[in-house]
Amino acid sequence: MSKENIIRQIKAGQTSLGIELGSTRIKAVLIVDDYQTIASGSFNWENELKNKIWTYSTELVWKGIQASYAEMSQEVEKEYGIQLEKIGSIGISAMMHSYMPFDSQGNLLVPFRTWRNNITEEAANYLTDLFNFNIPQRWSVAHLYQAILNQEDHVKDIDFITTLAGYVHWQLSGQKVLGIGDASGMFPIDSKTKTYDTKRLQQFGEIKSVRQYHWTLEDILPKPLMAGTQAGTLNPIGAQLLDPTGTLKAGAVMAPPEGDAGTGMVGTNSVRKRTGNISAGTSAFSMVVLDQALNKVHRDIDMVTTPDGADVAMVHTNNCSSDINSWVSLFREFAEAIGHPLSPNELYKVLFNSTKESDPSCGGLINIGYLSGENITNMPEGRPLFVRTPNSDFNLGNFIKTHLYSAFAPLKIGMDILSKEENIHTDNMVAQGGLFKTPIIGQQVLADALDTPITVMSTAGEGGPWGMAVLATFVREGQGQKLEDYLDQKVFANPESSTIAPDPRGVEGFNTFIEAYKKSLPIESTAIRSVSVLNQ
Fold first, then answer.
1. pTM of the predicted structure, to 2 decimals
2. Could you tell me the residue range of the domain that residue 380 belongs to?
3. pLDDT per residue as tens digits for the range 159-197
4. Max Cα–Cα distance, the chain, nearest Å
């Protein structure tokens, strides 16, 4: 699109804004009607472990949103010479699941409990048995029921619970709603009615310890909405929250707020049956849109939905790139200490490319990169571990490849359940996330790990917030179309992508590594018991 047309759309308020609150970064992406990103802004943040709870403060939520919006709007002014006063549609997405309970005055009753917390095992196990439906520890209903089991005083005052995306959307629009994909990580969804499963709502309400409270679960959950549904408008308070300068005007159409899994599916065009995608960041998850029901309940397979309500089998791992990032930071300090500083992109490129000369099975090195607990391998906490034997082939390439293998190891364990036990396969598996910014390396490792071709699109590093901006556009322009058709025919009519097939030597090497990885897990259990976390 020409610069003149972009300026015209900005002035007319025909842009769409996607804001995603990821695990390590909040990002704002502004697109025009050909889905081209014309400006973006970001804010780096980190979760904190406070009183053994992984959390972010609401103050930091708004600081980050305002900083990323300001950077994006300044980029608009610098590039196009006009202030951003009107936006056509806005969508908010964020990390799925979690627990944010509010009282009737809108006060947050306990600090935000993120997906990273493995503290609800008793509740998750009980609800899974009760519902005959897998309830992972990070789901909102598991956090709620665990709070009841723990006899936490705040439960009696609950008026509303939501996710991080739902909270931000509520503050911007006044609407207590949620995209159906994000809602499916709070409580089971009925794929026929496209709302919460009424039978299971009733079962929850009949639990003796639940009956003591004045609220019912259906009253305190946000209303699920399908993609393409208008979810309110940006009100004056919300406009001021986004842009404290007062330049932004109210009135933008709001899309249903979604989880990062849903925006990942949109950003990789993976909402049609038999398609799948993988998002790799602080955590990793694969999403496979089902064309058949699973044969049984699996504790490592979540049943969620696409943003338009189709059933999805999700493999979610709590750990992926965090341990890699920590080691890269250490190498950055060394480069600076010897007077040869490198940019993050240069550093990742140098380190990842060192694996080209590595051993396919990593030379006998083992890494377990658990910064937090890991649900797939039943670890309640994290203790990042690197292990080698006296005769391991310890060099840079093997060291970095070991960490790449380790990043995808829990995902491999979960995906094997789908492929080997349920015979679920996809026609297409698309990957996105920062691990794929360095060309080929991470993509090849993942293809070898899963023994399946992996496609990476040109938007691989920025899929989430861009996908949310696309969902915001869909609200204005979908005109009753199915989301899968809209994506195929308009958004991804001419996609830029590359596909890499598994390398047989790499597949064999990863299989050797994963067996050694599984045998080493007792070391992780011992470390959790033996090594205390400082400053909890």
1. 0.84
2. 322-411+503-530
3. 999 999 999 999 999 999 999 999 999 999 998 999 999
4. 67
